[in-house]
Amino acid sequence: MDSRNCGAVETMLRKNYALKELNLSSNHFAGENAGCICEALTRTNRTLEVLDLSGNQLTDSSMLAVISMLQTNPILRVLRLHGNSINDLTEQLFNVMARENTTLTHLSLTYRDNFSDSAIETIASVFKTNKTLKDLRIESTRLGDDCVQAICSALKNQNRTLTLLELTFTKLTNASVSAVIDMISNNQTLQELHLYESGISPENQSKIKNVAQKRIPPPQIQFSS
C-alpha cells in the first residue's frame, strides 16, 4: 500500500463514525505508512473495534505507532499482527498489555528471535495483571520451555480471563508437559489450548488430553505434528 492509498484510509478513519472492522492484511505497507493509520486510531477514531495488520512489512516506527495506539485507544478489541517480524518491540508491546491496555480482548503476533529473561517475565506478567485479554495467539520458532512454563504458572495461579491460548512453531518439548497439565487441572477459565508444531511426543499429547477430559467442562486441546 503506497502513501496515497494509506492517506485515504487515514482520512476515512478520521471521518467515518460507523466502521467497526478494517482488514488491511498482506498490503505490504511501504515505509512508515501503517503508522499514519494508527495515528488516526490514537487521536480521532473511536468506533473501530477490529484491526487486521497481519502479513505486512511493518517497520519499527510503525510498530511504535501500534503500541502508542494501544496505550490510548479505548475501543479497539481485536488486533492481528501475525506475519510481521516485530521482534525488537515485542517486549514493549507486552509491557503495554500488562500495564496500560484495558480493552484489547484478542491479539495475534509472530516473533522470530530468542526470548530474553526479561521478555519472558514481561509476557508472564500479562497473564498476571491483564483482566481483558481472552484470546492470545503467538507464532514463534524461538518460544521454548522456559517461557511456556512461566505462562502456565501465571495461568494456573493468577489469570481468570484468558479463554484461548495458541502457540505455534514453538521449541516446546516434553519438559513442559507437567506444567501444562498442572495449569489445565487448576485453571477453570481456559477453554481452548492449541499447541501446534511442538516437540511434545504423541504419548504426552494423549496424557495432556486425558487430564483435560477430567475437567468440567473439558477444554479443547489441539496438537499438530
Question: Could you give the topology of this structure?
Answer:
Blueprint: H1 3-15, E1 21-23, H2 33-43, E2 50-52, H3 60-72, E3 78-80, H4 90-99, E4 106-111, H5 117-129, E5 135-140, H6 145-157, E6 164-168, H7 177-186, E7 192-196, H8 202-213, E8 220-224
Parallel strand pairs: 1-2, 2-3, 3-4, 4-5, 5-6, 6-7, 7-8
Helix pairs in contact: 1-2, 2-3, 4-5, 5-6, 6-7, 7-8
Q: Level of helix content? A: 40-55%
How do the strands of the widest beta sheet line up side by side? 1-2-3-4-5-6-7-8
Helix/strand/pairing class, anyone?
A: alpha/beta
- Rg, alpha carbons: 18 Å
Order of helices and strands: HEHEHEHEHEHEHEHE
Q: The CATH topology of the largest domain is what?
A: Leucine-rich repeat, LRR (right-handed beta-alpha superhelix)
Please tell me about this protein's structure.
The protein is an alpha/beta fold and 225 residues long. It has 2 domains: 1-84, Ribonuclease Inhibitor (Leucine-rich repeat, LRR (right-handed beta-alpha superhelix), Alpha-Beta Horseshoe); 107-225, Ribonuclease Inhibitor (Leucine-rich repeat, LRR (right-handed beta-alpha superhelix)), CATH 3.80.10.10. It is built from 8 helices and 8 strands, in the order αβαβαβαβαβαβαβαβ. It has an 8-stranded parallel sheet with strand order 1-2-3-4-5-6-7-8, with helices on one face. Helix 6 runs parallel beside helix 7 and helix 7 (177-186) runs parallel beside helix 8. The radius of gyration is 18 Å and the shape is elongated. It starts with a helix and ends with a strand. The model has no long low-confidence stretch (mean pLDDT 91).
